[in-house]
Amino acid sequence: MSRDYLSDSAVERSASTQRRWLGVCAGLALVLLALSAIATAASNLAAPATTSVSTPTPGIPRRDYDPPAPPDLLLPAEVQRIQVAVPGGYPRIVKLWGGYEADASGGIDFYAQYDVLITSGAFTAEQLRYLRGKNPDMIVLYTGLGTYDLDDGPLGSQWVGASEGSREFECFYRGTNDQVLKVDFWNHGMFNLGDEWCADEIVAHLSSAYSPGIYDGVFFDRVNQAIAPHILHGIDLDHDGTQDDLDVVNELCWRGTERLLDKVREALGDSLIIVANDAPLPYTTRLHGREYESFVRDILDEGADWPWFRTNYEQWTQASRRPPLTMVMANPPYWMELKYGHGPWTKMEEAVVSQAASYYRRMRFGLTTALMEDGLYSFEFGTTWHGNAWWYDEFDGAGLGKGYLGMPLGDAYYATGPLTTTNIVQNPGFEEPGLVTWTLQTLGDAQAAVEAVPVTATYAATDTTIAACILITSSDQIDDVRLDQANIALESDRAYTLSFWGRASDQLCNVRATLHANDLNGTLYGLSKVLELGTTWQQYWVPFTSTATISNAVLSLAVGQRSGTVWFDEVTLQEGALPTVFRRDFERGIALCNATDHPATVPLNGTYYRLDGTQAPRVQIIIDDSAESTDVFTKTG
C-alpha cells in the first residue's frame, strides 16, 4: 500500500501539563528536536502549513551514472572543516556511487558532508585527501570487483569467452550447454567463487587496484549465501550437460564467498573495512555491515515485512565487526524505476526527477527506520540510479550541523508500550527450579537437552539471572525440537502479543513460535511465525489474533533445524497488540517511526519541535500515477 498522500500531523501543546502528544499518521516518520537543541524562535518552528513542494538542494543530477570529477579540478588552498554539531552524532548519511555532479552539487565541497563515501574511482587521490581535510571522520570505501563482472569488464573480458578446459573457463557459472549464465535484468554473469583459482585471481586484481592510503575499505555488490535458483538457474559445474544439485552448488558458493572475504582481508590488512550489499547474517563475523538496497521501498510498495527487517537490521548492527556500517537505502515509488528502466537519467524530464527527489514522507520513513539502529542512510532513485546528489533538511538539521541529534540514549522501543495486561505464561524467566511449567519435546531421531543456566548480561528490562539453554545435538526439521508450555488459555478473535528474548550460537538458527492443540501441533490457534535468531540477545515481538476459545493450548518455541545452542528468556504472552510505532531517544531529539497502515497517537513526554527547514509541507499530494498515458487520468472535485 502506498503511504505518500499525507505528509505531516500536528503537535498539540499544553502549557498546563508539560506533556506532548503526537498524532503519527500511517507510515509517517518524524525527527523531532528537543527545545534545548534549537536556537531559532519557536514561532518560526511552528510556521503555517504549506502545500509547496521544494526540490532538495543542491539540485538535479543530469549526468552519467558514475561520472568522474575533473582531474584538474582546482581545490582551495585553505581547507575549512564542515560544521559539526555533535562529533559522531546522528543521523549518519552515506553516498553510494553517483560520482561527481558539479552541476547539481555546486562543487566538490558538497561531498564532504557524507559520513561514508563509496566510489568506484570517481575521485582522484588528491580530491579525496581534500575531502578528508574538510571532514576528517569521513570513511571512504572503494567499490571492489568481488562476485560478478560485465562482459567488457577487467575480468569479465578475459573469462566470458575463455576456451573450455582452461582455468578461466571455470570462473563464471555456466549452464548445461556451457554458456555463461546471466542475471535477469542486469544481464551479467556471476563469478564461480567455489573455484579457488578464480577467487585468488579476483583478490589479486583487487589488490592491484586498491590504494590503502586513500581508501579505508572495500564495498562489494551482491554478496549472497545461495546462488541458485533465485539468482541463476540451471548451473552445471562439472559440464556434463545436466543441472547440478542445488544444495551442492549453494554450499560451494557460500564457502567460496567466505574464503574470498577472508583472502581479501588477509591481502589488504585486518583493519580493512568490508561492507557488502545483500549479505545475509552468516557473514556478520567477516563484514562491518551490509547494505539493505531498496528494502524500505519493498516494504512500502511490495508488502515486505518491516518487523523482520527491524530484527535483522538490529542483528547486523550488534553482531558485525566494529565499527558497524550497515546501510539502509530508501527510494521513490517502485513504479518510477519500472517505468524508466535502465539509464533513467537519460529519459526523465527534470520535473520528474524533481518529483522523485521530493517524496519527503518516504525519505523520512526510511531515515527514521535507519535511526532505530546505528546504521547509515541514503535516499536515492533506486537500483538503476544510485548516489543522487539530494540533500535534505533532516540530514544536517536544516543547517544545525552534522550529527545534530547527538548520540542515542538507548535502544529503540515501542512508543506506546509496554502492554499492561497479565502475562499468561507461567515461569516466564525460568527462575523456578527445574524449568517448572516447561517441557522439551523431541521428535524422530532428534537429540537435545534443556537446562536453566545463569546469565550475567542485563539485556531485559528486569534484572534476569536465569535463562533456558537448549543444546541440540542432532536434528533436521525445525519442529523436531520444541520448548513447550501447556494449558494456555485463549479467547477467540482477541488480539495477543508474544514476546521473548533469545539468541543462538550461530547465525543459521530459526525459531518457529506457534500456539497449537495439545498433542496435535498441526492444529494452530492463530500463531505461527518463523523468526531468525541472532548471536546476540534480542527481544522479539509477534502480534496475532487468536482463532479459538480454548483453555489447554500449547505454546511452542521450535528450534530443531540444526545442531547448536539456543537460549530463551522472559517469555510473555499478553492480550492486546501495540501499534508498530517505534521511538528512539537521542541527546538532542527523538525519532518516531510508524511502520503500520494506521495512525497512532503517542506521548512525547517533553517539549519538542520539528526542524526549521524548507522541505516540510504539512500536506503533500502528488497528482500523478504510474500510467504511461494521461488518457486514464481523471479529476473529481
Structure in words:
The relative contact order is 0.16. The chain has helices at residues 42-45, 102-105, 125-134, 156-159, 196-209, 246-268, 295-302, 306-319, 334-340, 350-357, 360-371, 393-396; strands at 11-13, 20-24, 29-34, 94-96, 116-119, 139-143, 148-149, 189-190, 217-220, 273-277, 289-292, 327-330, 376-379, 413-414, 439-442, 447-454, 466-474, 481-490, 495-504, 509-517, 520-533, 538-545, 550-558, 564-575, 581-586, 589-594, 600-603, 608-609. Residues 1-23 and 36-63 have low confidence and may be disordered. The longest helix has 23 residues, at 246-268. By secondary structure, it is α+β, with helices and mostly antiparallel strands. The strands form six sheets. The protein has an eight-stranded parallel sheet with strand order 4-5-6-9-10-11-12-13. Strands 14-25-26-3-28 form a five-stranded antiparallel sheet. The protein has a five-stranded antiparallel sheet with strand order 15-18-23-20-21.
Provide a compact summary of the structure.
By secondary structure, the protein is α+β, with helices and mostly antiparallel strands.
Features:
alpha+beta; five-stranded antiparallel β-sheet; eight-stranded parallel β-sheet; single chain; disordered N terminus
